[in-house]
Specification:
The protein is mainly α and about 120 residues long. The chain has helices at about 5-15, 20-60, 70-115. Helix 2 (about 20-60) runs antiparallel to helix 3 (about 70-115).
Length: about 120
């Protein structure tokens, strides 16, 4: 086995001019279909975690005046944050499904073209 030859070919591939192929276009379409759901999920999840954290801080008397009212409010806010975090994944699935439906025709058409070439 000639490892020098394999190494030289791998270096040459790295510097070779990459042409726009259908596979690259398919990857881009796939990424474009999934990106809105991922952005929403991360943003919504961070917001839910922050809301839950504020509730925890209120209930542990880290913020607020330490009264019983703030303690109860902290528990309520924390539960709201937990509920929001809990519904994050079902929302992600629904948004992803809608986005996949939007790009399904283009992706399937391009995938069939690639499959027929080989």
């Amino acid at each position: 086995m000639n490892t020098d030859k394999i190494y030289a070919e791998s270096i040459a591939k790295e510097y070779a001019i990459k042409d726009k192929s259908k596979v690259v276009a398919l990857r881009k379409l796939d990424k474009k279909a999934k990106l809105p759901a991922e952005i929403f999920t991360y943003t919504f999840g961070i917001a839910a975690a922050l809301i839950m954290g504020v509730g925890m801080c209120l209930s542990m008397k880290v913020i607020g005046n330490g009264s019983t009212l703030m303690f109860v409010l902290g528990i309520i806010v924390g539960i709201i944050g937990m509920v929001l975090a809990g519904i994050n994944y079902p929302l992600y699935k629904k948004i992803l499904e809608a986005s996949k439906k939007k790009y399904a025709y283009d992706i399937i058409t391009l995938a069939k073209e690639i499959a027929e070439e080989e």
